[in-house]
């Protein structure tokens, strides 16, 4: 339709993600999906639909809030869906599998049923809110079956999907008992986006091997680098950063920021830091490491175990190396305001980003954005982060399984002359300005809109 319009308005965008920020909660978000999306949709008429984060056992209509041209519609899950769909299948099974950690998977058929049921429930609640010419964009591993569920309810609009986390090689993916049905769910989308070329190759190969026709392409997610830089400059004069400066004296700050997640390589990073203190004595009492790691998915067994491990390692390192007026390590397992984090990034001489596997890792990009370009800090980055594709030229690259490699990179970073720091930072700053969050959203949606809907892979069944 639309032939009578002189200037066809851009279609409304419908974003569906399991985690939807509470309206105005943007400041406190921890997680690349919500942060990246919030940047990407700026200015467009948008409906953002998903889970409220709450459990309730009386099935109610979505809670709807509109702020300018952005409408939030959030539904509760039942207590049993939180357990089966969110904690069980999504985070106790798919999350470890997609991060190549087959040994951490916990498979239960009841969780699988809950996963299907929650997706059906989302589809039922979303259906009455949809308009025929909406552009629908579904996000992340919680909602892989949603596209097929909407198609089964007669939705003919274009539906795209973006996977924010990695996709493993076929030999690992096949460990999933439901791998075929999940691949066919992917095939219901008009376009599937992933973070890197490697993820695209893996998903493509899995689809081919198991007979599902997918249209997959890499769209690396980014940040709003200038916005984050401005936040970091403002925070520099703020109270939190001043307190931090006072407590550091002339010691160099080494910074880690992550959700408390086993994919982030936090214990590996601490072992690398411990090795620095052990092997490079000259840095003792000259550095302080801050690890901010807010508890995430704290009801899931593998995450509880990680928290205990972090507490134990941190106690061990402080016990072994602290002096009566210096502790080498501080850990915070709460969320910290984004502005304060930005200020800490600007202050830090080194950022340690050492995931064992990560879809992208926005913290790495935020650290780069926050630097003072005249006297920037150094990024130590795992080769297993999606961000390595873009930042390898400027970062000190490490394999996080090797504590000596982390210790050596830290030593090199702490000694690095300003000229080299500036050259490396400039390369990374150019990269984060090339692939921004806004550019990510625009290019995915442009590709989705450009598709001929007749070509829908296995859409209309
Ligand atoms: P993931 O999506 O796996 O959490 P990313 O690094 O891609 O990892 O994204 C994390 C996002 O959450 C970043 O924008 C980061 O600044 C934010 N974040 C991480 N830790 C905290 C924290 N402690 N407090 C507030 N925000 C955080
Ligand atoms: C990652 C995932 C997101 C998720 C976020 C926070 O960024 O890709 O889908 O929302 O972590 O995790 P949570 O379980 O709190 O939603």
Automatic annotation (TrEMBL):
Pfam families: Glyco_transf_20. It is an enzyme of class 2 (transferase). CDD domains: GT20_TPS. It comes from the Bacteria. Keywords: Glycosyltransferase, Transferase. The keyword Transferase applies. GO terms for biological process: trehalose biosynthetic process. InterPro entries: Glyco_trans_20. Its EC number is 2.4.1.15. GO terms for molecular function: alpha,alpha-trehalose-phosphate synthase (UDP-forming) activity. Belongs to the glycosyltransferase 20 family. This is Trehalose 6-phosphate synthase. It comes from Endobacter medicaginis.
